[in-house]
Amino acid sequence: MSALRAASHAFLLTWQSIFRDKAALLLFFISGIVYSFFYPLPYSAETVRRVPVAIVDQDHSALSRQLIRYAGAHSAILVVAVSTRPEAAQKLIWQGQAAGAMIIPADFSRKVLAGLQPEIDISGHGAYPLLNKVVLNGLAEVAGTVSAGIELKRLSAMTPSGTQAEASRQPLGVEALPLFNVREGYASYIVPGVVVLIMQQTFLLGIGLLFGSWSSEKSFPYAQDAASYCGALTAFALVVALNAMYFFGFVFWWQDYPRGGNLAGTAMLTLLFAYSVAALGMLIGMFFRTRERSMQLLVATSLPIMFLSGLTWPASAIPAPLQVLGWLLPSTAAIQGFVATNQMGASLHEVRMELAGLLGLATVFVVLGLRKWRRIVPPR
């Protein structure tokens, strides 16, 4: 009973310390609310549309004008200039007024009428990968649509009806249906993974802030026993779990992201993620001697950790030593696991590696943290 009383006392002391420290309160609760509304805002449109392009028409034929009209009607493209000189399009790209260009050669219609295959030059601004992809795909779709129309006219001249011509050109119909990211949007892809990293980093900062304050002021509030450690650990883990419930339960619904695929799996991952982050935060925090040290050392780690997680960079393209390093952090297993269970509806068996990784990290961090706890915390 005394151990339970000590754990409960440490649990309450931790919550009191959080609410008394304005900076810790900001990191643990307010920052998550701010992130949840302002971070997804730039991606609210989900897909990039109306990217400016320049068109160089050196053919001046009815067919080239049709190609320009099709480009103007494409939802992803905005034709900002039509010229006869490639230098004009290049200047617009250098000035940032266009993200790509399409050059229609002078012999375009002549080759089409002769039954030959003309070539259209399409270029994009490589400095902006997302815009570059939209420009290249959009202009390629425009060229493909015009090409299909020309081919259908040729086939119609050899077949009794337009329906037969269309069937002979494309005997198999293909309809692509995205399974999970149904809108194929950037926000639905990046935000569910990034919020896991946001939770981890803000909690590590907050826990380090509290421990740094206690160390510098020599006012550590806990006793030197395992029960107090477990009480404080559970308090910090509860903070992580509450934020996870807010993001996965409310924010994803509010922003209309894919969600709720496997609630039981998400709950299991949340429990393991909460304890692994809390244990890691306490282990790191016990090495800080000043309040500011957590900010100085942890803020710069967010971007490398993001790349190590395999979300924005394919895990298969990451060198093996860096992959091992990434799995030493809770965020890597948590990001992959949460996306799989919450967005894709993966079963517990399918995320067994992520569950085992988080369980192993939580165990190691608790063992190391408890040893450090008994060494540096003076008895009351």
UniProtKB/TrEMBL annotation:
Its main location: membrane. The chain crosses the membrane at residues 23-41, 189-214, 226-254, 266-288, 295-315, 351-370. Gene3D superfamilies: abc type-2 transporter like domain (3.40.1710.10). It comes from the Bacteria. Keywords: Cell membrane, Membrane, Transmembrane, Transmembrane helix. GO terms for cellular component: plasma membrane. InterPro entries: ABC-2_transporter_component, ABC2_TM. It is a multi-pass membrane protein. GO terms for molecular function: ABC-type transporter activity. Residues 25-370 form the ABC-2 type transporter transmembrane domain. It is found in: Cell membrane. PANTHER family: ABC TRANSPORTER PERMEASE, MEMBRANE COMPONENT OF ABC TRANSPORTER YHHJ-RELATED. This is ABC-2 type transport system permease protein. The lineage of its organism: Bacteria, Pseudomonadati, Pseudomonadota, Betaproteobacteria, Burkholderiales.
